[in-house]
Amino acid sequence: MMAHHRLASAPDTIRFGMFDAAFDPVLTVASGDSVTFECVSGGVEVMPPAGSPYAIPSALQAIHDSKPERIGPHILTGPVAIAGAEPGDTLEVRIEAIEPNNDWGYCAVRPLAGTIPEDFPERYVSHIAVDRARGVCKPEWGPELPLAPFFGTMGVAPPARYGRLSSREPREHGGNMDNKELVAGSTLYLPVWVPGANFSVGDGHGRQGDGEVCVNALEMGLTGTFTFVLQKAGDAGAFAWPRAETPTHYILMGFNEDLDLAMKQALRQTIDFIAARSSLTRVQAYQFCSLAVDFRVTQTVNGEKGVHALLKKGLLF
């Protein structure tokens, strides 16, 4: 019987800014089970100052007080193991629901980061009011904007040979993909690299533009519910990079520190996907991409830049 679990961010259920195949899971579930993750976001350097109208959530304060080891910028809740997962399998992550769990978020510019750090050398942090009931946010300096929440970082444990990785760079295991298409109702597919898969999530975004150019979106606490379905090796065809789909599109991704090479990877992933599912040859699939597939810049700020392809469902299959 499928079960539902709940996992809150706490000092003993999070890792701050890192993925590692050696991390033990904090929870083990069965294929078909769902988990609701109550996630928090932000280091002490981006918290509202004393006297601010914005309160730091107690769960986030407890994590700060515990002074956890930190490598990268994201508080990741997990990892959660899926019983029976083995390297070569695929973990299907159905994103059932995502809701803000705080009444503010932040967006920051920091030295040596972002797309044009040479133009903006000073730290600048904006705390942004969130109206959960109305589904909007409003910076003090700008217009009201609709929320479109998603998790910027979702990933399994990386290959063991990589050792401990910062959460900053997206790689084969997923991680900090910052793909705003991955809202509730979409599905992420991740290749499994270690027994149990060991999924972690965090980096809640209330909304984001493609590119995430200043290095942050609307960073905030989100609560998300995911259903995990294990696809055993051979069931659906093994692949080495994250893929996704929405109700309307298939999504293929590329990551590289060179944006041109990220584009080439996303294009090759799309050609492979089309050729495997249709009667088109690779050269015909290449032409089809030029005729009918949209390639978008996912983000340009995570060291490994991202490009994602959007293939509309129903055009080929």
In which order are the strands of the major sheet placed? 1-5-17-7-15-18-19-21-20
Uncertain parts = none
| Average pLDDT figure | 97
Task: Give the tally of β-strands.
Answer: 21
Q: Structural class, from secondary structure content?
A: mainly beta
What is the helix fraction of residues, given as a range?
Answer: 10-25%
Main sheet record: 9 strands, mixed
Q: Could you name the key traits of this structure?
A:
21 strands; mainly beta; nine-stranded mixed β-sheet; single chain; 12% helix; 317 residues; six-stranded mixed β-sheet
Walk me through what this model shows:
The protein is built from three helices and 21 strands. It has 317 residues and is mainly beta. The strands form four sheets. Strands 1-5-17-7-15-18-19-21-20 form a nine-stranded mixed beta sheet. Strands 2, 4, 6, 12, 14 and 16 form a six-stranded mixed beta sheet that branches. Strands 8-9-10-11 form a four-stranded antiparallel beta sheet, with no helix packed on it. A hairpin with a 5-residue loop joins strand 20 and strand 21 (305-312). Helix 2 (259-277) packs across helix 3 (282-292). The longest helix has 19 residues, at 259-277.
